[in-house]
Structures are given as structure tokens and as C-alpha cells.
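the two lines:
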Amino acid sequence: MNAVKLKKGASSHSAYDLKSFLGDVEETHTLAVLVDNEAGVLARVIGLFSGRGYNIESLTVAEVDHEGSRSRITIVTTGTPSIIVQIKAQLARMVPVYAVNDLTVEGPSVERELALLKVTGTGEKRVEALRTAEIFRARVVDSTLESFVFELTGTPEKIDAFADMMRPLGLHDVARTGVAAIARGT
Amino acid sequence: MSRQMTGADIVIQALKDQGVDTVFGYPGGAVLPIYDAIFQQNDIRHILVRHEQGATHAAEGYARSTGKPGVVLVTSGPGATNAVTGMTDALMDSIPMIVLSGQVPSFMIGSDAFQEADTVGITRPCTKHNWLVKDTDKLASTIHEAFHVATSGRPGPVLVDIPKDIQFAKGKYVGPKKADLGHYKPQVKGDIEAITALVELIEKAEKPLFYTGGGVINSGKGASQLLRELVKGTNFPITSTLMGLGAYPASGDNWLGMLGMHGTYEANLATHGCDLLVCVGARFDDRITGRLDAFSPNSKKAHIDIDPSSINKVIHVDVPIIGDIGHVLEDLLKIWKSRGRKTKAAEIKKWHAQIDEWRAVECLSYKNSDTVIKPQYALQRLEALTKGMDRYITTEVGQHQMWAAQYLGFEEPNRWMTSGGLGTMGYGLPASVGAQIAHPDSLVINVAGDASWLMNMQEMGTAVQYRAPVKQMILNNERLGMVRQWQELLHGERYSHTWSEALPDFVKLAEAFGGKGIRCSDPADLDDAIMEMINYDGPVIFDCLVEKHENCFPMIPSGKAHNEMLMGEADTQNAIDDSGAVLV
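prediction for all of em together
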């Protein structure tokens, strides 16, 4: 088997020990999928996930190349290693898909999510909300005498933490974009 | 050179330029302009089916028997939804098919117009790709791209939805060479390092086995030739899935018969006992593997497939090779020959001796009768009486299908059309019509069961109209035989709704359609009845009344391994436990 450079996820074992080799532990992966920006392409990708029972933790899509008419879909998904390999293969064989990159395994990457959080309250809670927002470097993008709208960019974990802090201070509403991710370096 | 023409004319021109000679379809309001264009030309023959599902299966029969894509034309709404089963069938069995559907005019889409359905939405999961054409200028290149997608890589069905206003409007036509075919370009050449790794395994194997599938047939006749050369050169035994029958000849020395749930004893025990399993264009379907953690436990496994998502999907393999079977086998042979054509000949000879012992069990033997026709006997006689003829076989789905796979021998690819992955009852009659339209002078027989056959029996009308002399050999047990068999084995012999009460008189039915009806219930008359069927110049329904309670063996029960086969009735007591019963 030395002659062939086996790709990640492949093994020299037989079916008997497939599970022990690849593992049963679910992993979270962030996939960047470059697609034709054509009608129904998002439905195709979502249909693949729902039809084959894969998980979607987060999904974002937007056109990234107007002239080439290409969109980038960023999907955060969970599954066992063999399921992750299968998800990537299923995505890659779709006709409108140009490329599938697994940012989780292909080297360091940056992940960011944007959230808008509305916090209502007066008095000490209102002051505390503003103080906490400063710690998290959230920006106030709307303000009334009884409410703030904070804008926060960061990893999903940071946004989770901020939302947890705001909950006792009058968190009213949260809007999150889902994860956008890109590889570091050139 | 772009020319201006109506959308309907663009459709016809694009089909002509793609080399299409036959379209299976059914007209309706939203495709009237295309039907008008069909009326005004003679290059493309339109076959009027009786139901859109029939059109799709006929196109599958046409495609599978010719190697060319099948083309279907249906109207909007119910026309398109009726085609869904056939598209799903073609997707599961990797059959190239182009479905053109009419749609309500683009300015009415979304208004719940008459015969409107979200066709691209409905067919997205049952096609390889689909398109809604919103601009007549893009119609020609979309159709050309549709042919490209359907026929390249792993073949499959595609759908082009064409609103009625787009069919009327004028636009520019581009030919296949000028058309933008998109960026879909699957890899056809296999990785040489991986192929070399497989050659090393082939050189070292002592108990090797080729396990081949429909991918060999989809790759073209050349791939079957290369496979035969490889089998002959290595002297490895070979088995095949249902879809792959005929790629290697049934009369070949190394042939073990089909493997899997109703495969032969020797094929399944060889699969279980081999030390090298080379999967060529198959996909480790659950009908093949049985219990996964006991599937071929001691073998190294190689998998050649054009679809990367088939690799490691259910069975983990040691050497994956992504590429077209023909290309990969060519490189494989080249490398194997250049390294001196090495195999462990003495050990392989021993392996053959072991296999011969398994073969001696004669797993396909059955208890014959001189008072009632056994279905196995009927197929053995059919085989004997049609051997060597220019013959195409289609089937419906069920016991008869498995018996046909077991008892009929296929010497060439593209001679066997059956619904494998989806298991679509009602496939066989329209598929036989499609195969007969493609091969008007050949003998085309649909081996059917009574229940399956009724599901698309309206297509007898198509056969009669186009003088397609298809032979419908119905192994009539007045039962849904395979379901009945499972009820016997799994559900305490409670035969819930598997008795075909109130069957039609098939002889009168044949006559009512304008065909010939034959009935036979006596084994002594069987040969004459089969010959009468074959020799009649026109469509025939042969109502072959067979033993009603015959079960299909050998059988790997659900949840069991290949070495736990049931060989006959005596083995069936408590054969399937609760965990197996939940499996299909």
C-alpha cells in the first residue's frame, strides 16, 4: 500500500475495523463551497443535506464574484470523519459546484460571524450592558432611552458568550449571520 | 453561425444535432409548440406512450440497450410529476436520460396556473441536474449542456423545464460545438500510483475476486472487452451485481454468477472468503453486502468508480481509484503486463478448486414438478430455447426478476435491462418497448410478474401502435411473490394484501389491446408455448401460470452475512431475527 498516497480518511484496514480507525466521534468542520450563482443552487445544497441526513450548524451564502457569477457558501457541519468525507464528495460532484474546501483540515483559517443584539432595560442594567459591550468591543448601532442595538463581530463562541452575558441584562432579540470563513495566508 | 428560430424549433434542432433519433413522450398544453415542431419534421421519431412513467422507462430501455441517452418529452404539471419515478429509477441505476418538460408561460409561474407544478423543485433530488430556461437565447446551450451532464461522468437523468412562452419566442441557435457546456468535467483517467498499487495486490493475491457492476456497462463495450481480457489474463474468478450482468459472459470459465441477497452460493462464499476483492463499477449496495461488519472480512479491497462519492460510502476500501472503468482497466492491463503479467497461479488454482466445491452444491437446483410449472423451470426453458438468439431481456421487480438473473445467461453487455437500485415495479413493459424501438428486428422479452406487469400495462397500447413485437412473459403466481416470501419468513405467514385477487384474463387482455395472448399451465406444453410466443410477429402476452408458493433461493436474510445463506425451504425456520426484520 506504500505505493499509493492515501488521502485523509482512507486507511489500509479492511471493513472490519473501519469504525475504530476513522472514529465514531463527531467533529465540526467548516466547508467553503464555491458555486455557480444560479437559481436554486442553495436549494440543491440544502436538499443534499436534508435528503442524506447531514447536519447544518450554520450556512451563509453570498455572491463573491459578480463577473464570474460565483457564490460562496460557507457551511458549518458536524459528523463522524467518514460522514464528513462523504459530505465533501457529495458536494463536489454537484454540477454547479466549482470547489469544496474543508477549512478545518486545510490549515489555519479565520472564522467570523456578525450579530445584532437588541438589549432593553433602564438604570443599572442598561449601564452594565454598555460596559459589557465595551469589553467585547461591540458597537452601538441604535439607541433609545430604553434599548440598545449592539453590533458584534467575532467567532461564534464569542457571540454566544456575549449573548449569555446580555441575557440577564434584558436581551430582547438576536440576529446572526452565520459563519463566514477563509483560509489564512496566501 | 447563430440562427434565429423559435424555441420549439431550437429544441428539435438541438436534439437532431445531438444525434437523437427517438423521443418518448406525451403531449399536453404546455408543450404544444414543441409537438407542432415535431409534426413538421421527419428526422426524429416520436413514440407516443400511454403514461409519462412509461415514457421514462421506455427511454431507460432504449438507453440501456443502445448506450445512447434516452430522451423524454412531457408536459407541465402532471406530465412532469408522472415522470418522477422514472427519473429516480435512472438516477439510482445511472442511466443517461434527458427529460424535456413543458412549463406554464414564464409570466404565469408562481400563480398556481392550470397544470403548473414546481417541476425543477420537485425533480431536483431525482435528477443529476436540472434547469428552468427563462430566455430563448439560452435554450440551445442549456439542452447541449443537459446532454453533456447526462452522459459524462456517472451518467444520470437531467431535466430541462421550458415555459411555453420560451417555446414560442425567437432566439438564437447554437450548435453543440459552440455551446457553453459549463465547467462540469469529471475525472476519467485513474491515478497511476493507485492503479499500480492495485496491480501489486493482483500480483500477490491468493484468493482474488472481481466484483463488477453497472459501471462497466455504462463505460461502453470497450470496458467489457478489457474486463474479459483482464479476467482471462489473471484467471481470477468474477461475480457481478444485478446491474452488471453481461459485462463478462455467463458462459465464461471464471463466471460465478451474481452475488448478493439472491446471488449464488459460490459467488457469496467467494466474496466472504477472498483475500482480494476488486470492485469494478459497483457501489457496495446493501443487496450486495448484507451485514456490513461481516462483509468480506479478510480481504484487501480495491474500488474503481467514476463517482468519488461512491468511494468509502459504505465499505472502506484500501485502494480507491477514481476514473472511468474503460480508462482505468486499460491502464491497469498496461501496467500489469509491463511488470510481467504476474499472478500467484498455483494458489489461484487452489482457490478455483475451493470455488468448484462450492459450485458443486448446485445452489440453483430446485424441486421440479411434472404437474405444475415451476418459475425456475420456465426460465430455464426460456434460456434454452432462446440461447444464441439476438435477444434483449427486461424484467419487472420481484421474485421473477431474481430468477431471471439466476437462470438466464447474458453473453454481452446492454442485453439486460432491469430496475436495480430503485426496484420499480412497472419498469419492464415500457423498458421492453424502448429496447424494441431501438432494436426493431431483435427478440425483446419482458420477464414479468403478474402484479408488477399490471402497474404499467397501458403501454401494451404503445407496443401495438408501433408494431413493437415485445414478448411479455408473465410468471403468474397470482401473488406479490417477493413480498409474500418476506411475509412468510418475517411476519408469521400472515399474507397481508399480497394475493392478486381479481386478476384480469391476460389472454383476453392481450386480444383487447390488439396483441396475441397465450396461456400455459402444464409443464409439458411449456416449450410449445414459449416457441409460439417467440415466433409470433407482434406483441404477445404469455400468461405462464406457475407454482404459487415458490420461494426465491439462495437468500441472504436481512442482517446476515454471506456465509449465512438460506439454501432452501428447510433453512427458513427463525432465519431472521428482530434486528434483521427492520431492514428492507
